[in-house]
């Protein structure tokens, strides 16, 4: 398995063993690819996904990421026989190694500067729901079924950052309902509650996600990365501190050539062509 800690290759040069990866026009597509099992995760795929998003922190070719699942499902979570069974035999130290690794995947997704778009159809459960949650935007279908089902297997809802992040997406009371009950949230409800940005027909889902990713990739990528960073940092800031942080961030963006390109294009009544610097 490729370790992102030991290489600095662009993502287009990676050859992951446990999912599909493609890079086209500045957009990377990560496809969980075990459709016969509804795309469950294994110890190896968790680690490889973590390493991929760590590598994205240094990648200059990729400006946006789409995460999806092969077939008609997103991800059914951790594989029952390849993960859940072995975990019942681990001691506390071994269990912490696993839970910290899964958390490291979410942290890597949040730390990479590229906007991450999840394209979700069918089952999106457990760790799959956490990966969707960790994405910056989520497109779904009416047939999608999202479940933070940890409670249903005897575990707490506090997994992979869910107790911190889910309330910020859908609100405290709604997050509590899902995390205490482990029930499924269908597509229409997920869109109404704000988990999905919008609903798309299943046969248009991936195309819509790629179209959105391309629009972001063609934008001012330094500024987009700054937006993502500030959205993350300002969760824990008082308003006055956030305003000052945004003043510094925006001043930095005003030093970029993309800012000057936008002004010159506006003056000529043209559409700016951003280059990410």
Protein model, in words:
- By secondary structure, this protein is of the alpha/beta class.
- The protein has helices at about 45-55, 80-85, 90-110, 125-135, 160-170, 170-180, 185-190, 205-215, 220-235, 240-255, 255-265, and strands spanning about 20-25, 25-30, 65-70, 115-120, 125, 135-140, 145, 185, 200.
- The chain folds into two domains: about 10-215, 2-enoyl-CoA Hydratase, Chain A, domain 1; about 220-265.
- The protein has a six-stranded mixed sheet with strand order 1-2-3-4-6-9, with helices on both faces. A three-stranded mixed sheet has the order 5-7-8.
- Helix 1 links the parallel strand 2 (about 25-30) and strand 3 (about 65-70).
- Helix 1 runs parallel beside helix 3, helix 5 (about 160-170) crosses helix 6 and helix 9 runs antiparallel to helix 10 (about 240-255).
- It is globular, with a radius of gyration of 19 Å.
- The two termini are about 35 Å apart.
* N→C terminal distance: 33 Å
From the helix content, strand content and strand pairing, which structural class follows? Answer: alpha/beta
Q: What would the CATH topology of the largest domain be?
A: 2-enoyl-CoA Hydratase, Chain A, domain 1
Strand order of the largest sheet: 1-2-3-4-6-9
What share of residues are in beta strands? 5-15%
Ranges where pLDDT stays below 50 over 5 or more residues in a row are: 1-7
Report the principal-axis shape.
Answer: globular
Q: How many H/I helices? A: 11
Major sheet description? 6 strands, mixed
The CATH class label of the largest domain is: Alpha Beta
CATH architecture of the largest domain: Alpha-Beta Complex
Strand elements, count: 9
Oligomer state of the chains in this structure: single chain
**What percent of residues adopt helix (DSSP H or I)?**
40-55%
pLDDT averaged over residues:
93
Helix-strand topology string: EEHEHHEEHEEHHEHEHHHH
CATH superfamily of the largest domain: 2-enoyl-CoA Hydratase, Chain A, domain 1
Quickly count the domains.
Answer: 2
Radius of gyration from the CA trace? 19 Å
